């Protein structure tokens, strides 16, 4: 489905990730609250091993809040990780909610002097996640205005840049990029509709038709906005009907399906259809 993740790219992303993981105490894994399973990387467990981890579900403003609660409970109980939901559009939310959790987890892991009362170095953390999940937004939000880069750390690595956070810990300024799971068509579609796969990696027309059929099956009420006379149609026909309802017509009165697809995907991605979570906890 995507043209962006050749095996060579994955191998490189994995190597970079392995290098960085060694340098930090805690990993913040960002996932998309609308697709907490599809936005996870199946190999992450293997790559980070027993490293302390927090799972943050980003974009909670676009997800169903009851489902987000259920997902956080599931992650803590079944996956046994600290889990937190974040709306990164709110400026201070990450610092207020996530930073204390990171500190609590990282603090006992930082090496201390023999007497145990002096930390030998600051806690170090990094953010990982699939494309477009909110990694840069989270880094900027945690860094705040005082983006003081501490420069290279002698003896650790010359190329890594660290950002000093308000609690004294250090955040790696480049996030770890995880490649999404693309071998499963349903997973790839969920990733594409939420924006994790860049344009050009999929057929917008086919994707919009699939989304309309999916919403008609699972959340029919959301399609009320398109004033469709019947939902009992194939995806392509639903897309035709949406195009007609929105006046996306070309010469001869045919529906401009490209424009209709664009409307459907944009209205889904920006939350105009409502807060929708596409996956329930198993
Ligand atoms: N509504 C909403 N949008 C968000 C949230 N977090 C991030 N975004 C938006 O999602 C888009 C991607 O955010 P980035 O921070 O660039 O994501 P990234 O993971 O760094 O993406 P890549 O660098 O492409 O891998 C941007 O348009 C953000 O404004 C959130 O909590 N809610
Ligand atoms: Mg980024």
Write structural notes for this entry.
- By secondary structure, this protein is an alpha/beta fold.
- It has two domains: 7-177, 3-Layer(aba) Sandwich (Rossmann fold), CATH 3.40.50; 203-269, Conserved Hypothetical Protein Ylqf, Chain: A, domain 2.
- The chain has helices at 7-21, 44-48, 65-77, 93-106, 135-143, 185-194, 204-218, 235-245, 257-269; strands spanning 26-32, 52-58, 82-86, 124-129, 162-164, 170-172, 176-177.
- Strands 1, 2, 3, 4, 5, 6 and 7 form a seven-stranded mixed β-sheet that branches.
- Helix 8 packs across helix 9.
- The protein is elongated.
- It starts with 6 loop residues before the first helix and ends in a 13-residue tail after the last helix.
- Guanosine-5'-triphosphate (GTP) binds next to helix 5.
Structural class: alpha/beta
CATH architecture of the largest domain: 3-Layer(aba) Sandwich
The fraction of residues in strands falls at 5-15%
Q: Any ligands, ions or cofactors bound here, and which?
A: guanosine-5'-triphosphate, magnesium ion
Proportion in helices: 25-40%
H/E order of the elements? HEHEHEHEHEEEHHHH
Question: Which descriptor suits the 3D outline?
Answer: elongated
Low-confidence segments, given as residue ranges, are 148-158
Distance between the termini: 25 Å
């Amino acid at each position: 489905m995507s043209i962006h993740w050749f095996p060579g790219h994955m191998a490189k992303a994995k190597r970079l990730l392995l290098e960085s993981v060694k340098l930090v105490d805690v990993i913040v894994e960002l996932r998309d609250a609308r697709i907490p399973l599809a936005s996870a990387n199946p190999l992450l467990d293997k790559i980070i091993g027993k490293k302390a981890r927090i799972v943050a579900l980003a974009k909670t403003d676009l997800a169903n809040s009851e489902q987000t609660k259920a997902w956080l409970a599931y992650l803590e109980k079944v996956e046994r990780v600290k889990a937190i939901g974040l709306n990164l559009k709110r400026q201070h939310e990450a610092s207020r909610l996530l930073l204390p959790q990171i500190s609590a987890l990282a603090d006992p892991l930082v090496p201390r002097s023999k007497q145990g009362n002096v930390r030998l170095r600051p806690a170090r953390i990094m953010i990982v996640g699939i494309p477009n999940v909110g990694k840069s937004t989270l880094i900027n939000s945690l860094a705040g205005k005082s983006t003081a880069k501490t420069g290279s750390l002698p003896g650790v690595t010359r190329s890594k840049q660290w950002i000093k956070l308000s609690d004294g810990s250090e955040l790696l300024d480049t996030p770890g990029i995880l490649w999404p799971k693309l071998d499963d068509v349903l997973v790839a579609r969920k990733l594409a509709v939420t924006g994790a796969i860049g344009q050009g990696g999929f057929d917008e027309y086919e994707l919009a038709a699939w989304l309309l059929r999916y919403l008609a099956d699972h959340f029919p009420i959301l399609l009320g906005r398109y004033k469709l006379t019947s939902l009992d149609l194939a995806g392509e026909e639903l897309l035709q009907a949406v195009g007609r309802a929105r006046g996306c017509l070309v010469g001869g009165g045919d529906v401009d399906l490209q424009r209709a697809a664009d409307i459907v995907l944009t209205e889904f991605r920006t939350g105009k259809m409502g807060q929708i979570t596409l996956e329930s906890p198993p």
